[in-house]
Amino acid sequence: MAHRRCMHSMKKTLYFFLSTLRNVLDPLCNFREVGVLCYHSIGAAAAETTISSSAFAAQLAYLHARGHAFVSLAAVAGWMRGEQELPQKAVALTFDDGYRDFLTTALPILERLRAPATVFVVGDAEASRAQLGNKVPLLSSADIRHLRLHPLVEVGYHSLAHADVSQLHGDALVAACAPRHGARLFAYPGGVYSSEAIGLLPKLGYRAACSIKRDLVAPGADPYMIPRHVVLRSMSAREVAARMTQASRWYRACTSWVRRRA
Ligand SMILES: [Zn+2]
After folding, report:
1. How far is the CA of 257 from the centre of ligand 1 (A)?
2. How far is residue 215 from each of residues 37, 53, 137, 252, measured CA to CA in Å?
3. What's the CA-to-centroid distance between 24 and ligand 1, angstroms?
4. Domains, the chain, ordered by start
5. 92: CA distance to ligand 1 center in Å?
6. Ligand 1 centre and the CA of 192: distance in Å?
7. How many angstroms does the Cα of residue 262 sit away from the middle of ligand 1?
8. Are 93 and 39 in contact (CB under 8 A)?
């Protein structure tokens, strides 16, 4: 336990050092930083992936104050394809599973900052319940219809029943991924995917798909494997913002170097 606590504080110190270094170098280097955040529920539950409304608002305010521009995920996918420009520091916000608190709690905060967002809904709420492992209410069909008309919101798809799509093949994979609610964007449940799924999604009409690989987005990378940083309850606003910078890349390089030598 003490060892784990020690590792945890060492990691925090490394992240703090790297983000300070990035802040010093950024005025000289003006890093190109495009990132995607993955939220789940915004509310009061004690789950690791549930963020309180005040913490969520503080994270967005912090990103905004640090000069990050909020852009849509569709714009990020367009930029990856070389079809459009993005600000030098851009963050896209995504919300997995389609919890109802996206509409009631997150959206008013997004509206205040005019921040676009993509919410990834499941096709069959009842069948998804066992996979999600919580009782947080999900968006109804009427909610989804309402959200589709909202100028800041894009409704994406998160599969029919939140199954691991890397384990599905052929017709079963098509049935799990076939778009509903006019979705053009997909998020792999649990972030896991297969080459079969990556090959299928464009044929089903999707423009892009998201994993939860912790990385910034690179121009020219595959838009069917967009990396995202999952936001956890334990993260401070500063930590969330650091993940949208070059510091997160350096951090990953350092930790994988340490792991290789261990
Ligand atoms: Zn999910």
Report:
1. 30
2. 10, 25, 30, 8
3. 36
4. 31-261 (3.20.20.370)
5. 17
6. 10
7. 33
8. yes
Q: What is the tens place of the pLDDT at every residue in 76-108?
A: 999 999 999 999 999 999 999 999 999 999 999
From the CA of 227, how far away is ligand 1's center (Å)?
15
Q: For 223-259, what is each residue's pLDDT tens digit?
A: 999 999 999 999 999 999 999 999 999 999 998 888 8
Q: 189 CA to middle of ligand 1, Å?
A: 5
* Ligand 1 centroid, distance to 141 Cα (angstroms): 18
Ligand 1 centroid, distance to 19 Cα (angstroms): 29
What is this structure's pTM?
Answer: 0.95
